[in-house]
Amino acid sequence: MEIIIYLIPIAVFLGIASLGAFVWSVNSGQYEDLDGAAFRILGDDDKPISDVRKSSPQSR
Amino acid sequence: MTDLALPSDLGCPSRLAPPSRDEESGDLSAFVQKGAGEQSLLLSIRGAKCGGCLVKIEHALLALPGVTSARLNLSTSKLKVSWRGQLSTAKITSTLTELGYGVSAFCEDRTERSAKQEERSLLIAMGVAGFAVANIMLLSVSVWGGYGEMGEGTRTSLHALSGLIALPVLLFSGRHFFKSAWSVLKNGHANMDVPISLALGLAFSVSVWETANGGAHAYFDASVMLLFFLLIGRFLDARLRRMAHAAAHDLAALQNRSVTRINASGIAEAVRSADIKEGDQIVLAAGERAAVDIKITRGTSSIDESIVSGESEPRSAHPGDVLYAGSVNLTQQMQGSAMGASSDSLLADISDMLNAGEQKRARYRKIADKAVSLYIPFVHSAAALTLIGWLLSGASVRDAVLVAVATLIITCPCALALAAPVAQVVASGRLLRNGVYLRSGDALERLAETDHIVFDKTGTLTLGEPVLVSETSNELHEAAKLARASRHPLSRALVLAAGPGQIAQDVTEYPGLGLEAHIDGLRVRLGSADWVGVGAADASPGLALWFQIGEGAPVQFRFEDQVRPEAACVLGNLQASGYALEMLSGDRAKAAQHVAATLSISDWRAGVSPQDKTARLEALQQQGKRTLMVGDGLNDAGALSQAHASLAPGGAIDVSQSASDAVYSGGLDSIPVILAVAKRARLVMRQNFALAAGYNLIAVPIAVTGNVTPLIAAIAMSTSSLIVTLNALRINLKEV
Fold first, then answer.
1. Which of B45, B117, B217, B634 keeps 20 to 30 A from B601, CA to CA?
2. Which of B193, B280, B456, B587 is catalytic?
3. Which of A1, A3, A12, A13 to mutate to test the interface with B (most CBs of B within 10 A)?
């Protein structure tokens, strides 16, 4: 069971690394707007922006 | 409400907010921040509510030359644009207004920044505590699993490792509690943080002592778990409170407009409205909203004071008249002198009313506060009595202290700290799915307590915009050709009814009178009764436009600000449920009486100023009534803040939205839903507190008799928190 002498420090070290990543994500403002981040990835990049004055009104 | 006057791909694609009318936001170049080679601008956007809006806005801005980043925060409607090189702010704002969104400059104030910092630090503290819980639990489960078989040396080293992880975490994540407890104890009082800090400190010290002496039980896992659950509660609370802060802040955004001032050398320059002093010469363009109170010196125009007074009919303004901050200049450019700084304007008075209301709200004693005040003495006396009891019955100091600390840990309020925040978070999510934005968690309790509802008229009970009610005819399409050239609300209503079409050439607008053009050689006029030569006797009261081609007979178009279709049904249901209803309107008595009669409201007042509305609500509250105010205009903002609880419709001006407790989209149908969810949430909160109390009744005897081991403490804490959270989720279950 002596293997736990270095398994435990490895586990704790992994924990600290993920904690560091979490702190970085909070400080870079990723928790400010969870709704917006979710929608941004759904945006369609290939459609051109419609020129609102030229297009005719569409019925909804 | 479909809007045929504007193309339907303007504004929010999901129609969660109406498209913004073209309003001049002024030259925002005064608000640009210059960085290293890059310039950036922070903007506040109106009307962006869904993912489609976000994509539309960001893609449109990224397409502009030089823009390096454009990021919209959908939760707070703040947009940050950064660019290199020459890009005028006018191009940015015009891109946004062409898409159908309202734009104004945004300056983050100190309170908002510190609230954001506090929330972030709580989130990080929670993350660190979570890390500690997971890693110490890893070690604790090993100890529990090895019960009876694990050697003392192994057990002690595992305990020591737990202690090494626990120490920095307790100091870092627990500092919120320690600081708060210390500051309160210095003044001789006690709050919830005192028993928490005591429990954390004692648990840690006792565990270190036990580890040093090779004892069987160490409470490191219980102490960090306690810290973790408490921080979850604190974080949820801080997040909800930050959303509520915005009242004074959004008012400041209204005042963050740019104003065109004529300086000493006679040149017009753009300055921040906060920089305007009394006596400055201001130029107010057509379509611009006044940022300060102005005394007009040159020019004649029509002004829309509806958001200030609720008056649905625009009035004409001449040199010598006073134009209040918040009114919109409709037709022609005017010049005037500022009557005071923006801090002296009507807007500032309303801001003061808002602050007074907010402070009153802050003193409201929530259920949570009442529970806490009962809890503190209970916890301390339980622990002290346990210690004394065990010592008296002949146990060793070590055993007595261990049992007392265990009692202190297990009575510590994970369930209590979570009871209110989880219910509030679940209820606010439930309301969001019904199109209601809840602005603060404790609003739920206040909403549930109300018994007297006060409605504003224009925009709340009525649609807020005039609608053509006379018969459509050929003249309508002819009249629309002139009307399309004007921003006057009645012209817009005419165009709405007529549909798309041409605009006549060379239309001249005479403020206060009407429009004139020459079509096919004939003089065509659209305007007031005087404009077309109709005598006062024939002119009917109420909103009307007269139309005359050449010397032919004038045709009248009548408009009405119609009552919302669902209003009668909703108000009937509310009355049947036992609420007393009342209407306060800033509009004329005739218009108010008509609406009150249609909706069978017996208690109504007309011609009410913003100060009168606030005074009426104060009077009702002194009579002991718990008032719910529903309103949308700037003239309602003070009343919304003063009332026991308040609601604003989605079309309301930003300030009123911020002053209210919840903003509802989709009509008056939402009001019964909001009240029902609020009542359910209050019930669930009370149940949660009862469950927390029940948990203590079970836990304390177990602790006092010395049966609490770290394993039991961990199970007890997690179970109580889980039960409270699951109970809160019941808010989602029943159909409202």
1. B634
2. B456
3. A12
Nearest CB to B59; choose among A38, A49, A56: A49
Helix (H) or strand (E) run with residue B435 in it: none
Chain B hits for A53, Cβ within 8 Å: 7, 98
Distance CA B231, CA B228 (A): 5
User: What residues contact B622, with CB distance under 8 A and at least 6 apart?
Assistant: none
Task: Yes or no: say if B500 and A59 are a contact pair by the CB < 8 Å rule.
Answer: no
CA pair distance B490, B465, nearest whole angstrom: 9
Q: What is the pLDDT of residues B660-705, one digit of tens each?
A: 888 887 788 889 999 999 999 999 999 998 898 888 888 888 888 8
Question: What pLDDT was estimated at residue B351?
Answer: 67
Label residue B127 by pLDDT band (50, 70, 90): very high
User: Which residue from B67, B42, B53, B59 is spatially nearest to B20, judged by alpha carbons?
Assistant: B53
Q: At residue B539, does pLDDT exceed 60? A: no
For residue B732, the 8-state DSSP code is G
Mean pLDDT throughout B245-250?
49
Helix (H) or strand (E) holding B411: none
Residues of A in contact with B99 (CB under 8 A): 52
Contact by Cβ (8 Å): B115, B50: no
Asked if B173 and B125 touch (Cβ cutoff 8 Å), the reply is: yes
Contact (Cβ atoms closer than 8 angstroms) between residue A60 and residue B503? no
> Is residue B456 annotated as part of the catalytic site, yes or no?
yes
The whole-angstrom separation of Cα B232 and Cα B126 is: 7
Instruction: Please report the number of interchain residue pairs, chain A to chain B, with beta-carbon separation below 8 angstroms.
Output: 94
The distance from CA B695 to its chain's CA centroid, rounded to whole angstroms, is: 35
Q: Which residues of B touch A (CB under 8 A)?
A: 2, 4, 7-10, 15, 50-52, 54-56, 58-60, 63, 72-76, 98-100, 116, 120, 123-124, 127-128, 131, 134-135, 138-139, 154, 161, 165, 500
Q: Which residue has the higher pLDDT, B634 or B89?
A: B89
Phi, psi of B639 (to 5 degrees): -65, -40
| Tokens read off for A13 | 């070290």
ipTM: 0.76
User: Is B635 strand, coil or helix?
Assistant: helix
Kind of pairing between the strands at B452-456 and B580-584: parallel
Residue-wise pLDDT tens digits, B662-674: 888 778 888 999 9
